[in-house]
Hints:
Blueprint: E1 3-7, E2 15-19, H1 25-32, E3 42-45, E4 49-55, E5 69-75, H2 85-104
Antiparallel strand pairs: 1-2, 1-5, 3-4, 4-5
Amino acid sequence: MTYLWATRGRTWGFRLLRTGGLADPLATYEAAFAGASDEVEVWQVTGAGGALRFPDPLGRRDRSGRVVPHDFVLLGDDARGVTSVDEGRRRLWPRVERVFVEAYDSAAPPTPEP
């Protein structure tokens, strides 16, 4: 599955932790979420594939007290079959949960993966 993943930890700010192997993942991310504003949960089909946002499943918060969001851009055919936030969460969260658990309390975010 090819996707971008952006989130934040307890003390480190919002970052792309997975780039989908793109040379300019930020442009793809921004285009995918352009119409989503600050909605807490999002599933929308985009030119890239699909944009998915959901709050941290365990309700983790950053040091300012904000619930941590998890934003994904599913690239190309990897968005096929996703029809809702719940379906997207079922597919994506197991892929990143371990990485996030290890990174959440770190002083610095992990190095982005392709």
